[in-house]
């Protein structure tokens, strides 16, 4: 199967990255990694007048964000949507992309969960939740006791233990477990509750109850003016050309700054502290700066930092990244009985199927499939089944089809398919994660001018990465 984009699809190419000064490589800031975090940090710092060099080992910017087109099929290689929140709205407004932003189909508000071999829609209204089979009478009895549940233990608690203690086993199995599979591709019994779901834990700490805290927050939100226009509140968004439009625009704006450059095909081989700051070496260049930002996966930062200070690399090496594959399947519309009237279908671990879940990609946004066809994107691997991601492409396609055939009423075979592999996909905020970050920050305090950012801290969502990068860029600017 084709796995590489054509030159036309690649957006910013190596040729476009040649706008660089090969004789003078002294900068205010060198940023390693042009994913969402690195791009946002470079954009924020460059527009404040800093001389910024952004180094990316790949041929395109965006990291795991990217869009492919193939004979009328349009797929995302990584994240599929963005959640519109005030920071993202402000960024899109600044980048003049609001007019291009594409809200998801209103049907995307409906989410399905596999239950006893059939797709069941999650309730969208409290009254509908009463009769929803995902909870049932026993599940509801546990939920209604939540305000009186015992308090949290002093020790760190797994997300599974936290949810079961407060809301019961049913909520864990059929709501939280599939949600965790969809977001982290993780195992709730391994994820740290305060690290992975800190807002839920904060509600318990502040109000003694998730229900009381949630209702209080809802009342406050309704009373407070929202910085978002009504039409954008709670929206999932993309662009007609996919999410790569955002990363390409960030790259364009960075390159438009007179003292900022993006260097593609430029892998950092080593870093070292110097009397004047930091030096990054690549295959054929050296980049010097007083500020160095590593905006790469934790294991990449660990490799670069081990010769500098093992106290920096050790916490990063402990962060687990399971393999996850995205399996895109195209069908004739008449070959699927389910109306695909939702965001997608999550498959709880209790259902004993291999596929983690599936997005109804052609429902979410238009022009993702040729006329008369539909596009599904299934996910394989994850923390619980890492070996599955090693199967060959044909086996991946066959398994996803096997798992979904009865759930979605699939009568025919796919007419098109593609497998995108991520050997190290999503960082897991597992037991000890907050202690690891604390130890890392303690070691980092001894290395002036060094910043470490990425989706392994501060949130894994693209929106979190963009905002964390922006804030870092702002913090770097006053230091100059």
Terminal CA distance reads 49 Å
* Largest beta-sheet details: 7 strands, mixed
Q: How many separate helices?
A: 16
Using only C-alpha atoms, the radius of gyration works out to 23 Å
What proportion of the residues is helical, as a percent range? 25-40%
Approximate strand percentage:
15-25%
Shape: globular
Low-confidence stretches: 1-24
Mean pLDDT: 92
Structure summary, number of beta strands: 19
**Which class do the helix and strand fractions yield?**
alpha/beta
Folded structure, characterized:
The protein is of the alpha/beta class and 480 residues long. The protein has helices spanning 36-46, 86-94, 126-129, 136-144, 159-167, 169-183, 193-196, 198-207, 210-223, 244-256, 298-305, 310-317, 361-364, 393-408, 433-444, 462-476, and strands spanning 26-32, 52-56, 67-70, 73-76, 82-83, 102-103, 112-115, 118-121, 236-238, 260-264, 270-274, 277-281, 286-294, 324-332, 344-346, 357-359, 373-381, 416-422, 450-452. Strands 1, 2, 10, 11, 12, 13 and 19 form a 7-stranded mixed β-sheet that branches. A 7-stranded mixed β-sheet has the order 8-7-15-16-17-14-18. Helix 1 runs parallel beside helix 16 (462-476). The longest helix has 16 residues, at 393-408. 46% of the residues are buried.
């Amino acid at each position: 199967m084709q796995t590489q984009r054509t030159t036309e699809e690649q957006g910013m190419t190596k040729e476009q990255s040649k706008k660089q000064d090969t004789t003078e490589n002294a900068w205010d800031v060198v940023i390693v990694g042009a994913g969402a975090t690195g791009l946002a940090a470079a954009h924020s710092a460059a527009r404040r007048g800093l001389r910024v060099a952004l180094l990316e080992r790949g041929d395109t910017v965006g990291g795991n964000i990217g869009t492919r087109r193939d004979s009328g099929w349009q797929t995302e290689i990584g994240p599929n949507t963005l959640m519109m929140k005030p920071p993202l709205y402000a960024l899109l407004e600044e980048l003049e992309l609001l007019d291009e932003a594409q809200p998801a189909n209103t049907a995307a508000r409906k989410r399905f969960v596999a239950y006893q071999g059939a797709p069941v829609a999650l309730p969208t209204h409290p009254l509908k939740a009463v009769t929803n089979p995902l909870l049932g009478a026993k599940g509801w009895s546990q939920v209604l006791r939540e305000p009186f549940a015992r308090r949290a233990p002093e020790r760190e608690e797994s997300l599974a233990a936290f949810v079961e203690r407060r809301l019961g086993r049913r909520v864990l199995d059929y709501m939280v477990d599939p949600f965790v599979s969809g977001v982290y591709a993780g195992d709730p019994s391994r994820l740290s509750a305060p690290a992975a779901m800190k807002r839920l834990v904060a509600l318990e700490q502040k109000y003694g109850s998730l229900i009381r805290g949630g209702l209080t927050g809802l009342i406050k939100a309704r009373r407070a003016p929202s910085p978002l226009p009504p039409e954008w509140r709670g929206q999932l968004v993309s662009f007609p050309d996919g999410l790569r439009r955002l990363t390409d625009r960030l790259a364009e704006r960075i390159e438009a700054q007179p003292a900022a450059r993006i260097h593609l095909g430029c892998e950092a081989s080593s870093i070292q502290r110097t009397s004047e700051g930091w030096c990054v070496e690549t295959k054929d260049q050296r980049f010097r700066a007083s500020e160095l930002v590593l905006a790469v996966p934790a294991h990449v930062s660990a490799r670069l930092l081990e010769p500098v200070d093992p106290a920096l690399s050790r916490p990063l090496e402990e962060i687990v990244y399971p393999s996850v594959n995205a399996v895109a399947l195209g069908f004739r519309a008449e070959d699927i009985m389910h109306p695909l009237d939702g965001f997608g279908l999550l498959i709880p671990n209790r259902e004993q199927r291999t596929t983690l879940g599936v997005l109804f990609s052609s429902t979410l946004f238009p022009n993702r499939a040729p006329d008369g066809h539909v596009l599904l994107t299934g996910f394989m691997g994850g923390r619980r089944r890492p070996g599955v991601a090693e199967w060959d492409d044909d086996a991946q396609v066959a398994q996803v089809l096997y798992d979904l055939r009865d759930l979605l009423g699939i009568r025919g075979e796919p007419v098109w398919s593609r497998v995108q592999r991520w050997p190290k996909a999503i960082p897991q905020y597992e037991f000890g994660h907050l202690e690891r970050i604390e130890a890392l920050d303690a070691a980092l305090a001894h290395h002036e001018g060094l910043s470490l950012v990425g989706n392994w801290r501060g949130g894994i969502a693209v929106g979190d990465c963009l905002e964390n990068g922006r804030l870092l860029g702002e913090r770097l600017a006053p230091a100059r």
